[in-house]
C-alpha cells in the first residue's frame, strides 16, 4: 500500500477499530488473491473483534499488492458501506497532496496503441472486426482470471478493461440506447481489483456511464454532467493523457447539446476552451505514438469547425449567426486537415462524414448551394457506409434544405426572367402607344384646323351671300329710281 493510503487509514483508524470485523471482509480479499490462507487463519485465530481489526489494518498497510480501491470494494461488498464511504471521503479530502498515479505501469504503450486501434475500427465502420477483437479480449480474460498468475492477470485485466471502454464508445457511435441496461458497467466494476492502476479505470467508468445516461434520456443532461465532474475529480491523481483528454471530449459533447438548446454565446466560448484543453491532454501521447495525438487533434478540430459553423450534434444546423471570422477559422481548420496528407489518409469513415458536413455548410453559408449539395451527398455516403443512423438523418435533412433552397432560387430566377420579359413587352407597347397618341394629337390638330377652315369658308360664304343680297337690292333700287325720272319727251 502506498504512503498516502497509509495516511488515510491512520485518519480513520479509530472508527475502523470500533466498527469493523475482519471476519466478514477477509473472504472477499482472499477471493481476489490479496489475502492468502495463512493470513486468513491468523486473523480468525484472534478472539476479540477489536484486536482482529487492529491486526487487519496492520496487515493491509504492509501489503504491496493492496490498494485503496481494493479495500473500498471489500468494505462496500461485505455490508460495510458506511466505512467504505468514510474511506472515500477521507481519500478525496487528501487528494491535493497525493502523488500522481502511474499509468498502467509497463503496459501503458501497448494499451494506448491497442485502445486506439479499437477506436479506429468503430469509427471506420468495420463493426465485424471490432466485435471480433472485443470478444478476443473478453475470452482471454476469462482464461487468465483464475490462473493465479498475477502479472499475466494484470495485463489481461487491463486489456479487457480497455476493450470494455471501447465497447461503450462503439455503442455510442452506433447510438444504441440500450448501453445503460447492459452489464458492461458491472464488468468494469468487477475488474477493478485486478487492474494495475486504480484511478484511471474508475474515471473512465464514471464518464462512460454519464454518457450512457444522456444517450438514454436527453433530459438527464445535469445528471450526466454530474458523472463527468466525478470523473474530472480524478484529474488530481492522474497525469494528463489520452483518457483525461477523452473525459474532456465527452464533456464537450454534452455541453454541445446544452448549447444547441440555449445558444448562449458564453457557452460557445466555454466549448472552445474545453476543446483546446483536450488537445493539450492528447498531445502527451506523442511519447507513445504520434499518430494517436494527430488523430485526436484532427477529431477535435472537426468538432470546433462544426461549432464555428453553427452545426450541432449529428449535423443538425443551429439557428445562430455565423460571423465572417467564424467562417475564416473553420475554413482554416478544414484546410489544415486536408493538407496534412498522412492524417487525411488515416481519417476514419465517421470523421470523413464530419469533414464533408462542415465543408457543405461553409458553401451553404456563402449561398453556393450546388457545392453544398455536392458535399452533403458525400457526407451522406460516408454516414451510410458506417451505418451511423443519427448522422444519416442529419445529412438527409441538410440535403433537403439545400435542394429546397436551390429550387426556390431557380423559381425566383424564372419569375425574375418573366418579369423582365414582361417589362420589355410593356416598354414596346408604351412606345407604340406614345406614337399612336402623337399621331392622334396630330390628327386632332389637323381636324381642328380643318374645322377652323370650314368655319372660315362658311363665314365667307355667308358674307358673300350678304354682299350679293346687298348688290341685288342696290340694283333693284337703282332700277326703280331710274323708271321714275324718265323725261316726258321720251314718252
UniProtKB/TrEMBL annotation:
Q: Give the UniProt keywords, A-Z.
A: Coiled coil
Top-level taxon: Eukaryota
A Pfam family annotated for this chain is CARD
Q: Which SUPFAM superfamilies match?
A: DEATH domain (SSF47986)
Coiled-coil positions: 450-477
Positions of transmembrane segments: none
What the entry lists under CDD domains is as follows: CARD
Q: Does the keyword Acyltransferase apply?
A: no
What is any one GO biological process for this UniProt entry?
A: regulation of apoptotic process
Q: Which residues form the CARD domain?
A: 1-90
Query: Is Transmembrane helix one of the keywords?
Result: no
| Gene3D superfamilies per the UniProt record, alphabetical | Death Domain, Fas
The protein here is known as CARD domain-containing protein
Identify the taxonomic lineage of the organism of origin. Answer: Eukaryota, Metazoa, Spiralia, Lophotrochozoa, Mollusca
